[in-house]
Amino acid sequence: MSAVVLFDGMCNLCNGSVKFILKRDRDGYFSFASLQGFAGQQLLKKYGLPSDVNSFVLIENEKAYVKSSAALRVCWHLKGMWRILSIFRIIPPFIRNVFYDILAKNRYNWFGKTESCMLPSQEWKNRFLE
């Protein structure tokens, strides 16, 4: 069983998050696709999400999770102390997502933006969908 993380490939925070996950997902549970790419757009369509979704998306067990729900589910699968963060799932999403939305709205201003999607290193290339 595996899951797919859809991320904004032009966002420095999002690219950093992908690298963070890759380093802690030694079992290769997660695959990745940029929201702007063909695979990402096809998955958004398949799960009934808008093509211009402004969120981190996790597809797991044939279900799409967005915003803080997606991020906390990812934390659950990571090695080390990161799993503890998943306890925040007890907070209702409408409360958690207030903070998520503030971060998402300001991510380009606070962390910057690239002009093109991240190219994975050779060791991680097989984890990215095209």
TrEMBL record:
Protein name, per record: YuxK
Molecular function as annotated in GO: protein-disulfide reductase activity
Residues of the signal peptide: none
InterPro entries: DCC1-like (IPR007263), DCC_oxidoreductase (IPR052927)
Organism this protein belongs to: Neobacillus massiliamazoniensis
